[in-house]
Amino acid sequence: MTANPFPRRLHPRVRISEPLSNRTTLRVGGPAEYFVEATSLRDVADTVNTAHEIGLPLHVIGGGSNLLIADEGIPGVVLSLHCMKKINVFGAKVHVQAGAKLSTLVNRCSAEGLAGPQSLAGIPGSVGGALAMNAGGRYGEIADYVERVIWINPQGELESRYKEEIDFGYRISELRHGVVIEAVLQGAPGERSELIGRAREILQQKLAAQPYSEFSAGCAFKNPIGQSAGRMIDLAGCKGLRVGGATVSDRHGNFIINTGDARARDVLELMRQVTQRVLEVHGVELQPEVQVWPGRSLLAA
Ligand code: EPU
Questions:
Q1: Atom of ligand 1 nearest to the CA of 202
Q2: Which of 139, 171, 199 is the last residue of a domain?
Q3: Is residue 206 part of a domain?
């Protein structure tokens, strides 16, 4: 059996060869060599330090909603902060830990009369994951509400950064190179019942347009500037295209569905075929939005 390289106090929170597919919304992929569930900043620091000292690759998993994990699994450490999920609202500011679900954050903000984050209703995933990729949709993105973020930066230091000091782009942020611990978000005062209604309306729109009840990683590709990848894929005739257990949704062209027994390699091959067809029909090369693991390790020297 593989030895546990982590400090003894962390052992109850370390699992060896832990299956990951059920921790992703796409439900594909192999196990993590080491899976660590952090319950405190000290757990996170010990995990990061151990990985660094013995040269293990490090990945942080959030809600697993934008993630495609290789069939062979992930060497090194996969760190989860899903137990670190406190949310505290102070007037128009909210302090939220990385492991909180985005949907819980939206509901809390509405219930406490904090307007803003309702625009993120219906987006799956954790707050840490949302910050790492600047999650958003038609009505806004999480960067719109960031006041500051506390993270372990790529140099391994605990740091607080104001929004102006963070590089946010379309579905990308530099925070993906470190470990987000918590954030302070800034909203505005609002009326509770209106905010609850607004969030519900946005959620309903998504439920109507997207294949919510099926296994997918959300939109597979980024929208090219000024265009919709979903529409381009649809017009290119890719809906219903299938490789193994993976198929392009009939409902929304930018969703790849695991019909039950898809492997990561099926999804990747289908993405390749879709990219090729869209290039032929529209002359545009789609870029993946879904994160493919194992990619680059965090905090790599
Ligand atoms: N459309 C089609 N056929 C399709 C899909 C879409 O004709 O198969 C048309 C729609 O009718 C609409 C237009 O394309 O006129 C745009 O579609 P939609 O409103 O669904 O938005 P989108 O640009 O495809 C973006 C985000 C989604 C987000 C929605 C709603 C990206 C890549 N996608 O989709 O985000 O939920 O807006 O806010 O930015 C995600 O990031 O995982 C994601 C799903």
A1: 38
A2: 199
A3: no
**pLDDT tens column, 146-192:** 999 999 999 999 999 999 999 999 999 999 999 999 999 999 999 99
Cα–Cα dist 149/134, whole Å: 13
Question: Is any ligand 1 atom within 6 A of the Cβ of residue 219?
Answer: yes
Does the beta carbon of 291 sit less than 6 angstroms from any atom of ligand 1?
no
What is the spatial distance between Cα 26 and Cα 126, in angstroms, rounded to a whole number? 15
CA of 208 to the centre of ligand 1 (A): 11
Ligand 1 centre to CA of 209 (Å) is: 8
* The ligand 1 atom nearest the CA atom of 228: 23
Tokens at 70, concatenated: 């290789």
pLDDT of residue 299: 65
Residue 67 is part of a domain; what is its CATH number? Answer: 3.30.43.10
**pLDDT, tens digit (0-9, with 9 covering 90-100), for 247-290:** 999 999 999 999 999 999 999 999 999 999 999 999 999 999 99
Beta strand pairing call for 67-69 and 291-293: parallel
Does the predicted model carry a pTM greater than 0.90? Answer: yes
How many domains does the chain fold into?
3
- CATH code where residue 149 lies: 3.30.465.10
Within 8 A by CB and 6+ apart from 8, the residues are: none
